[in-house]
User: Fold these one by one.
Assistant:
Number 1:
Amino acid sequence: AKMIKLDMAAKPADADYKIVCIGDKSRAILQRTLAKDILLSVSDIGKKPPTFEDATVLANAILDAGYTFDQGDIYFNRFKTVVSYSTQRMPMFSADKVGQSDKLSSYDNVDEQVLQSYLEYSLVSMLFYALKEGACSEQSARMTAMDAASKNAGEMIDKLTMHFNRTRQAVITRELIEIISGAAALN
């Protein structure tokens, strides 16, 4: 969401763009400043591990939203290591843009139906990839947070054990002093 906000602030004021939010967190963050630019928000995806069917539903929702685009970007968190991830941008293009590509003429029999099928499958594949990378990054962040919480809990247990042992030792020492003082008073 931070990268999207920075990129949208750098775009010209007359640029026409729309945002598709996946998940409640990104929608909540972007809705504060970019509410007029949100085309679609999907909150059902991301609560469970993503499947190719989820990506298909999402791609169909994007394509059926009624907004035509020449190109767009898919923003997602890419897993790097257990303790870090990076926010990345993956481009996606419309059928017209791909149809105008110089390299497309090297393929035989690329009609509009084949091109449209390719673009739909490509969009679903890219969304699935982005969803899987995001889920992996999220699990990594959760694992790191749980490890830190377990370490902090262990340290707290050690401190409380030490405090309890000192308190118990103080009580034992006081009782021994009372017994010794009582025995000395009888003599």
Note: The chain has a mean pLDDT of 85.
Number 2:
Amino acid sequence: KSTEFGIKYFPLENCAISAAYFYTVVDNSIEFVYLWNKETPVDSLTFFDYIGDTYLNLGKQTTQGMELSVDAAISRHLSLTASISVVGGKLEYNPSSIDTNKTKNNYVQLYNNGEYLTNKDVKVLGLARRPAMAGISLTYKPTEKLQFRTDVKYVVAHNDVFYNSELGPFGALSVIGIEDYALMDISAKYTFTKSLNAIVKVENVFDKKYIEIRGFTTKGRGVYASVRYNF
């Protein structure tokens, strides 16, 4: 179930302010789990107590957040767009939601956080890879044919996941912090005719080293040039 509420306000003729709030609940989310021998205490489990692994419909994921944006023409030649988004959430698991016909009442361990669903509810606050972000764009048009644009994006420090071998005999996922970072892109566009234009763009101007997802590379500085013709 998802609910969203938004509003758009025009304080001036060439200025618009937008705000939106959303709230989403997913029940019976699909989880990958390990099954362990119910006859052995959890603290004493070893590889030999492994029963198997499977997927179960259990748990509830709640996501909520807000977005704010501003679009404004500062002057005849200069315009600005700015936005910010914040996302939060939680995961909740109840042992009563376990399909015991499938698990045979054995221990259920969640792979995505290493928790065992024994006789207590489990709640995990915060969602990985959901960073808060802010951005601003400035567009300058000295003439009708020439346009310069600067885009800046800031990503707040947030959590990513990694494999933690200490969470149970087989290990499971745990969270690790990712540093915040800011990126800047600049571009210039010239319109020769209604059908023909040329664009030069520099991404990640300062060649910032950053991480979006652990284990995956990100782009360094890049320079692009293109010519477009619309038939």
Note: DSSP finds one helix and 15 strands in the chain.
Number 3:
Amino acid sequence: MALPNGQILLTFAIPCYNSAAYMDKCIDSLLEAGDDTEIILIDDGSTDRTPEIADSYAAKYPEKIRGIHQENGGHGEGVNQGLRHASGLFYKVVDSDDRLDKEALQRLLCRMREHAAENTTVDMYVCNYVYDHWDGSERKVMRYNNVFPEEKMITWDDTHRFLVTQYLMMHSVIYRTEFLRGCGITLPKHTFYVDNLYMYQPFPFVKTLYYMNLDLYLYFIGRADQSVTEQNVIKRIDQQLLVTRLMLDCHDLNQVKKQSRRLYSYMMHEMALMVCISSIFLYKSGTEENFRKAKDLWAYIKVKDKRTYRKLRYTTMCALMLFGRHFSVTVYSIVRKVFRFN
């Protein structure tokens, strides 16, 4: 898989919507990545100075940066658009309010270039991400060295068990571009929380993984308008439910189990997390309509696949639901204070 002269190694896609106040920090963190990388700025129908800033960067760095303007389609359509236009061997989504650590990025790129020169095919690279809180409090690093052997070419069968509070995020991974296109993923428009689908649908197609214990991705958290705040999740709960159902529909987990028990274990863990989060926020809303939606979600799972339903009901996270609404919401609140993930 050695790159021919002039081939791009890595495409960074930055979906931007009204990101004028902070997008420059994100872009600047990627500019020194190397001549074999590119940055695609996807302006998602912004109404502030985002289009102007994107065009100014593209004009200043024409060999490095491209700007794309689209009608508003949401974060998922920004990811789709970046993938359509990516020319890099690998594809990395970076949110416009986040950054990459420059030193960690250089170490990762060095290893990626070595693999390309050796014609080694890697479907997915994994690195750590860091909760970068707005108030400057102590940062929490989400590492995977207990799950993945470090700096070794592995398959899902070489992985170890994830902790209950541990899971992969869009921030954690870099996909091989043609692999991602080949698995057929298209994220829905005008929908939040599609990063969960991005981190679930491709996994059964991943044949080779490579983990580097680098604190690469700095995940900014704490802005009131972020989609992950408790208020916004409740307000957009129907979109959370849509993504959860799309995840339930995209794979037969019983077939995944035949492919790899380790992968099955992780995907069940991820599905339990989504169902648990959806249920808890439906409960936290306090409305009878949303209590009914929680029941409907579980009924949908039961009709779709009784074995998956039974498994989900008795996983560590979802088992909390058996103790009632108030207990599960209380446990969530405690975990939220400890990990400060929204």
Note: Residues 327-332, 334-342 have pLDDT under 50 and may be disordered.
Number 4:
Amino acid sequence: NSIIGARYTSQAADKDVERIKNDIGLTVATTYLQVLLAKEQVKITEKQMELTKSRFTDTRKRVDAGQLPELNALELEAQFARDSATYIAAIMTSEQNLLTLKATLNLDAATILDIVEPPVDKIPVERIADLQPEAVYQIALQTQPLQKVNDLRI
């Protein structure tokens, strides 16, 4: 019985290694997606800043011509300052997420690393409406190493 128990413990340890590999892959994928999201946020805030600047320039011309009160231009100038602060924060978040990805990959912080954004149409995605929760659960029970570890340890 001790020998059989030791075999099960050994098999459970092997499956535990698989689980840890899956966890590492999931962590890297999550960090990569955070970097992608941060880069998109930078683009969005940059566009917002450009839009506000354009509106401010147009409003400033109208204020100088006497069509609008000075308050309108000042409000847009304040909005531009807020947008600039948001832009700087988005850049900092992007850089921080990139450093986190480097740390996750165990790379030196000085290593030059830039990620490539995959074309959206090339990403295989199953429709959520087509997924059956019970089928997904059964597949997870059969394929996930953690479930196998638990079965072996029992």
Note: Residues 33 and 97 are 10 Å apart (CA to CA).
